[in-house]
Every structure is written in structure tokens, then in C-alpha cells.
Amino acid sequence: MADDEGLVLDTATRLFAQLGYDAVTGRMIAEASGTDLGTSTKHDIYVAVMERTIRRRDAYLEPVLREFTPDADGLVRLVDGFLDFSLAHPEMPSLWMHRWLSDAQDLTDFDERFGAPWMREVAARVGRAVPPHVDADLTLWTAIWTINCFVQGGLLDAEGRRPSSDPRAQQRFREHLHLVLRLIATSRPAT
User: What residue stretches are annotated with the HTH tetR-type domain (predicted)?
Assistant: First the structure.
């Protein structure tokens, strides 16, 4: 697979994002990429796809995390960075959404290996940007779930379905997300 690794990973990423891990076979990847997978298994390729996706996300968000400030503006910039990456790489939300919907359950260490370390790091930053009574983990998850659903489905409004690639839908979604994040970051405990 070494010579055609990029082609195989691009093809497998597209297939896994569209169909999910469980529905894709090694043969499908080989045929769609026009390559011989050699000794690489579907599992090996899936792990390589996820590793590459995570590396790309981390490289994109590294400056955002480095410049993070523990306030509402920092929280908005952080989530904007995640939204921008997700819009530019819609395969990432799709890959994770398949996983969350019980795809690839035989990969038992997968979440701890690929998701949890980043989530812990980012949730710690979110925790510094929200008041103590706010659950930082759920704030982060709410943003991620919302972004993933928007990227995959766009908006459904009175004018019909607007794909996430529609600049007006993006602006409307982003403004609403900013409002929600600012409300969370400046909220007071319920009395």
C-alpha cells in the first residue's frame, strides 16, 4: 500500500464517511481506489484514516488552542476553529457520527485512543472559560454535536433545506452558536 497510500486513504475516508466502517469492505476500498491493498486490512486502513484526520484537526486547531483565552471570546474562537475545520473537512464529522451511532463497535479502544485525549485537553480549556456551575464537558459536547449535525445536514427552515455549504446558512448558524456560547460563558447559577 505504500506507493498508493494517499489514494487508498482518500478513497477509504470517503467510503467510511459515506457508509460507515461496518458497511465498507477491503474489496470496496481496493476497487474504488484501483489499488491492491496488499496485507493492509480494513481495520488498519480505518485506523490510518482516523489518525490522519486527527492529525489534520490538531494541526489546524493548534494555533487556536495556543491563543485560547479563558473567556467568552476565547470560547467562541475555539468553537469557530472547530466549525471552520469541520466545514472544510466534512468527512470528520461524518466519521465520528457513524461511530457514535454504534458503527465499528468491535474497535474497543477506539474512543480512548482517538477521542478522549483531545476532549480532555479541550474541555479543560472550556472549563476555564465558563463559570463553575457550568458543565464544561457538556458545553463542549453540545458544540461538537451541534456542529457535526449542521455540517452533515445543514439547516431546515421556512425556505427549505439549506446545505452547510450555503454561506447564509453558515452565517446564521455561526451567529446562533456564538449567542449560545456567550450566554453559557456569562450565565449565573439558577437560584
Answer: 9-36
